[in-house]
Amino acid sequence: MAEAVIVVALLLVAVSATAAVAVRDPVRQSLVLAVLGIVLAVLFTVLQAPDVALSQLAVGSALTPLLLLLTVRKVKRRGRRRRENEP
């Protein structure tokens, strides 16, 4: 029973990681990355590493995607300003 849960968690990790690589839009990539972080946290919990799971949940599914979204937003703003200032 426990091995089946581990296999399912590993398959979810593989699917979400593949989706994170396959998505081309940076905003969607960061959202898929957040899902990947949650799935990894579930995997770590299944593997009986709750401390690592909590760290992954905080950093991998919340902080990193948030920073990526803010960076993409900043880059898009900067691009708009440059286009407006060009003659």
What does this structure look like?
With 87 residues, the protein is an all-alpha fold. The protein has three helices and no strands. α1 (2-22) runs antiparallel to α2 and α2 packs antiparallel against α3 (50-85). The mean pLDDT is 91.
Ordered list of secondary-structure elements with their pairings:
Blueprint: H1 2-22, H2 26-46, H3 50-85
Helix pairs in contact: 1-2, 2-3
Outline of the structure:
The protein has helices spanning 2-22, 26-46, 50-85. The protein is an all-alpha fold.
**Gyration radius from CA atoms, angstroms:** 17 Å
What is the terminal separation in angstroms? 67 Å
Portion of residues in helices? over 70%
Number of strands: 0
Question: Sheet bearing the most strands, described?
Answer: none
Number of helical stretches of at least 4 residues: 3
Strand content: under 5%
Let me know the average pLDDT. Answer: 91
Task: Report low-confidence residues grouped into runs of 5 or more.
Answer: none
Going by helix content, strand content and strand pairing, the class is mainly alpha
Order of helices and strands: HHH
Q: What global shape is seen?
A: elongated
